[in-house]
């Protein structure tokens, strides 16, 4: 290989690696923006928020006071809530006269003047004038911000009644006295984001909470997540209670409650303006994440007047891209178990890092990193699995015909290590040999002899394999096989005898074929003996084979050698005959002398 070729190969490998990394990270970033990716982020955010509120509570120095229009207040008045101008006007006057610094009203003020209700004999029914008077009194003592409501049908914010708007506009300060009460939910329906310009339906108006904070003296271009870590659960004072305290002359308690504070007035009824949050926020609903909307505005004000919003680190930030690059290294490496262990540690580390940043009011979106880690690991494992499959196929192709299916199966299942350790095992050994083969083939060309042997052995081996046997070796025109290893057989003697008889049937087919070609019929002898043998891989690192050795092998070979004299093609020992059980085709042949060992009882079978 030339230097130029080597350089091109290196560049090609580098380009492939870069492509794989880009593909994995790009896929993860795209998926992180879908519902699946965001759901991963939301779930982790909610769990970290719960842990933070439970184990790392954050106290606040400036906490809004909530005045709620609840069921108790609604039950205490005679008129409908939409006509409660007088009570609202009186409440605003009480709160402002008690020293409230800023009042935020999360209730839509009336759009109509209800002039038809005015009666000269009952001037107290001039609801418009009474509320207007209350607003005028309030803005002289406190900063007042009221909510605007988005009209979905008209596609714009509903305008306040002109007189109310004029009064609100008389206030001095760098804030808008009429602001949007609109909030944006995430894909799972929960409110987490601060309602900035991007959240507003018209992309122009600012939020009620932001203008309340501005009226307090804190103005900023707020973005990020509402900091739900701050403060404990919230309670409220019923509007009915405030009116009663004023009627009873409890001015000291009212001033203690409101003096210098931010006050939010809104509905706290169980069925009005209910929103879903990532954590329980209402003290009177300790197990519910569904709370009145005024509490969301109050938590946003908490965030702005204390530690600020929680800043979100987006998936496209350099920090996330860097973590994705680190996660993409799981594309490399071949040890799957180690890789999975490291992936688990990496996930734990990422969760810890994200939580530590969470405690610093920074939210790290981890879905892209987790998806990169998952894609990289799955791609690597899948690629290795494919390579393993391809290697197995190559191995199977290379060894097919060289070893028995049972040995091949053990090799494919990576059980070669166990096969290398020899062990004793009960097997039934089969020896077969072609009778008078040398005389029969001495005048044939060698190529013709080999061709006939291959055709013969293919039939014999098929019968052995059919019964679960393992072909050990070919010895000229003979073969050795054993039953019971490496695959365990319940009745190896029966399987061996079936294989021997099957070999005789296959031999008849073979003889018919070669007779048509002008060759003489072949005869074979088969010997079967059972017992313990030492099973394992024998040889050197350069050349070895899976085999069986022991007296049982020698005895089977001796039984095959006497088959010609006994005039039976199959000779089995008494051990095999006993294991097979009653078999009318097995003929007892008394004890027979075997070369190199004592006589044993044998049985013959013609088919």
Automatic annotation (TrEMBL):
UniProt cross-references to Gene3D superfamilies, sorted A to Z: Nucleotide cyclase
Organism whose genome encodes this protein: Undibacterium nitidum
InterPro entries: A/G_cyclase (IPR001054), Adenylyl/Guanylyl_Cyclase_3/4 (IPR050697), CHASE2 (IPR007890), Nucleotide_cyclase (IPR029787)
SMART domains: CHASE2, CYCc
Source organism, top-level taxon: Bacteria
GO molecular function, one term: adenylate cyclase activity
GO biological process, one term: intracellular signal transduction
Stated name of the protein: Adenylate/guanylate cyclase domain-containing protein
């Amino acid at each position: 290989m030339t230097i130029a070729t080597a350089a091109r190969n290196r560049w090609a490998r580098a380009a492939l690696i870069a492509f794989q990394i880009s593909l994995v990270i790009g896929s993860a970033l795209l998926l992180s923006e879908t519902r699946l990716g965001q759901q991963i982020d939301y779930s982790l955010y909610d769990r970290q928020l719960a842990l933070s509120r439970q184990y790392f509570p954050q106290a606040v120095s400036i906490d809004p006071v909530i005045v709620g229009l609840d069921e108790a207040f609604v039950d205490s008045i005679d008129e409908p809530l939409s006509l409660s101008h007088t009570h609202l006007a009186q409440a605003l006057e009480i709160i402002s006269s008690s020293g409230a610094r800023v009042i935020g009203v999360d209730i839509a003020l009336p759009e109509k003047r209800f002039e038809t209700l005015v009666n000269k004999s009952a001037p107290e029914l001039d609801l418009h004038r009474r509320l207007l008077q209350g607003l005028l009194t309030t803005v002289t003592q406190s900063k007042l911000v009221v909510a605007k409501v988005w009209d979905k049908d008209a596609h714009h914010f509903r305008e306040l009644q002109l007189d109310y708007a004029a009064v609100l506009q008389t206030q001095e300060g760098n804030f808008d006295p009429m602001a949007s009460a609109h909030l944006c939910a995430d894909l799972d329906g929960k409110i987490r984001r601060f309602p900035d310009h991007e959240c507003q339906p018209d992309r122009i108006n600012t939020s009620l909470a932001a203008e309340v904070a501005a009226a307090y003296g804190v103005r900023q271009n707020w973005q990020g997540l509402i900091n739900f870590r701050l403060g404990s659960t919230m309670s409220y004072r019923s509007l009915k209670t405030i009116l009663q305290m004023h009627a009873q002359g409890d001015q000291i308690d009212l001033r203690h409650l409101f003096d210098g504070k931010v006050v939010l007035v809104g509905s706290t009824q169980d069925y009005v303006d209910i929103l879903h949050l990532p954590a329980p926020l209402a003290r009177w609903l300790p197990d519910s994440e569904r709370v009145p909307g005024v509490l969301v505005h109050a938590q946003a004000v908490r965030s702005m007047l204390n530690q600020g919003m929680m800043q979100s680190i987006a998936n496209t930030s350099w920090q996330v891209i860097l973590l994705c690059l680190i996660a993409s290294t799981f594309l490399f490496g071949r040890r799957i178990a180690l890789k999975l262990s490291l992936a688990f540690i990496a996930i734990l580390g990422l969760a810890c890092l994200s939580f530590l940043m969470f405690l610093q009011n920074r939210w790290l979106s981890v879905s892209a990193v987790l998806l990169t880690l998952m894609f990289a690991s799955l791609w690597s494992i899948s690629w290795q699995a494919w390579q393993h499959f391809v290697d197995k196929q190559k191995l199977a192709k290379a060894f097919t015909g060289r070893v028995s299916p049972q040995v091949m199966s053990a090799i494919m299942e990576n059980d070669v290590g166990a096969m290398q350790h020899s062990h004793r095992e009960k097997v039934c050994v089969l020896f077969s040999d072609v009778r008078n083969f040398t005389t029969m083939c001495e005048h044939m060309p060698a190529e013709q002899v080999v061709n006939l042997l291959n055709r013969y052995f293919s039939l014999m081996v098929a019968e052995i394999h059919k019964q679960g046997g393992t072909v050990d070796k070919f010895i000229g025109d003979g073969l050795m096989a054993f039953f019971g290893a490496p695959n365990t057989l319940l009745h190896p003697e029966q399987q061996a005898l079936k294989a021997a008889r099957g070999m005789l049937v296959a031999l008849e087919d073979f003889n018919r074929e070669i007779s048509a070609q002008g060759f003489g019929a072949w005869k074979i002898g088969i010997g079967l003996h059972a017992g313990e043998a030492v099973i394992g891989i024998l040889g050197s690192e350069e050349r070895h084979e899976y085999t069986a050795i022991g007296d049982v092998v020698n005895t089977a070979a001796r039984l095959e050698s006497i088959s010609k004299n006994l005039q039976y093609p199959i000779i089995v020992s008494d051990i095999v005959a006993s294991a097979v059980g009653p078999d009318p085709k097995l003929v007892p042949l008394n004890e027979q002398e075997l070369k190199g060992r004592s006589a044993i009882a044998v049985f013959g079978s013609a088919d």
